[in-house]
């Protein structure tokens, strides 16, 4: 099998077991090590850090960070998957 990507999900396959940056709907972002994915873009990340952005009462932007040993992300919430150096 050639290592040249021919399908969009082939690009994600190249990132298996690498650190990735995932942008999600709802002003959320996750960075972590890509463990698995499927054709629906459901993904499993290990050593993940999730950042949730929100506005506070003074119209400023605040963020909350959560760390997870492993996390499952449903594919319909995924907007972008890339390596952290590309963001």
Order of helices and strands: HEEEEE
Radius of gyration: 14 Å
Class derived from helix and strand content: mainly beta
- How many domains make up the 3D coordinates? 1
Number of helices: 1
Read across the widest sheet, the strand sequence of neighbours is 4-3-2-1-5
CATH class term? Mainly Beta
What are the key terms here?
single chain, SH3 type barrels, five-stranded antiparallel β-sheet, mainly beta, 87 residues, 54% strand
Write the layout of secondary structure elements.
Layout: H1 8-13, E1 19-24, E2 28-37, E3 43-55, E4 61-73, E5 78-82
Antiparallel strand pairs: 1-2, 1-5, 2-3, 3-4
What's a quick, concise take on this entry?
The protein is mostly beta strands and 87 residues long. 7% of the residues lie in helices and 54% in strands. The protein has one helix at residues 8-13; strands at 19-24, 28-37, 43-55, 61-73, 78-82.
Report on the structure:
The protein is mainly β. The protein has one domain (8-80): SH3 type barrels (Roll). The protein contains 1 helix and 5 strands; from the N terminus they run αβββββ. It has one helix spanning 8-13, and strands at 19-24, 28-37, 43-55, 61-73, 78-82. It has a 5-stranded antiparallel beta sheet with strand order 4-3-2-1-5, with no helix packed on it. A hairpin with a 3-residue loop joins strand 1 and strand 2. The longest helix has 6 residues, at 8-13. It is elongated and about 50 Å long. The N and C termini lie far apart (29 Å). The model has no long low-confidence stretch (mean pLDDT 91).
